[in-house]
Backbone:
């Protein structure tokens, strides 16, 4: 069983950390689509920031076949309360039938940055 420490408490991987800020991982087939999605999320204040990383190699199973594709990865910073709206917007704009949209908690960070993140989203 995996454990981690957060604010001097030991958690198992089955316990939820209650943080307001999250980072969302989203893959896209190319930089243009990623930029369009990221721009729409920031414009709608569903995200404070989105980083786009080129040249991600993704190996996965799709419709019974092993695929090996080059993609781009977005790292989107937002608030947990906005995740459902963000997910719906990504699905609306994305070309994939089943886009990767995975939220990870931000367990700590620069107080100033996290305050900016909260102020930049609604």
Residues:
């Amino acid at each position: 069983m995996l454990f981690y420490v957060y604010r001097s408490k030991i958690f198992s991987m089955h316990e939820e950390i209650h943080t307001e800020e999250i980072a969302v991982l989203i893959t896209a087939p190319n930089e243009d689509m990623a930029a369009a999605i990221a721009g729409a999320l920031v414009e709608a204040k569903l995200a404070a920031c989105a980083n786009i990383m080129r040249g991600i190699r993704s190996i996965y199973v799709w419709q019974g076949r092993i695929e090996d594709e080059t993609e781009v990865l977005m790292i989107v910073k937002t608030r947990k309360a906005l995740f459902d709206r963000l997910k719906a917007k990504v699905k609306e704009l994305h070309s994939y039938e089943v886009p990767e949209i995975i939220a990870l908690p931000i367990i700590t960070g620069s107080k100033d940055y996290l305050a900016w993140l909260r102020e930049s989203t609604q």
